[in-house]
Amino acid sequence: GDGRSGESEVKLAFELSTADWVPLAGPRQELPLGEVRHPMDSAIEAAGLTVDDVIVRPPRELVAELVGRPLAERRRIFAHSRGVGARTGDVKRMDRAFWRGVGLSLAEHNAKGCESQLPDLIWDFPSDAKWALLSGLWEGDGSWSLINGGPSVTLEFGTVSDELADGVLRLLGDLGIVAARRIGRTRLSTKDTHWVRISGADQVECAIVLVGERDRTGVLAALRAQRKRIAPTGYRRFDDGPAWARITELRRAPYHGHVYSLEVPYSHTVVTSGGLTTSNCFPKDVDALKQLAGNSGYHFQLLTAVIEVNELQKRRVIGKLHKHLGGLAGKRVTLLGLAFKPNTDDMREASSLVLSARLHADGAHVTAYDPIAEEQARTLVSGVTFASSPLEAVRGADAVVLVTEWSELVQLDWTQVAKAMDGELVIDGRNALDSSAVRAAGLIYEGIGRR
Question: Which residues of 339-376 are buried (b: 16+ CB within 10 A; e: fewer)?
Answer without folding.
Answer: bbbbebbbbbbbbbbbbbbbbbebebbbbbbbbbbbeb
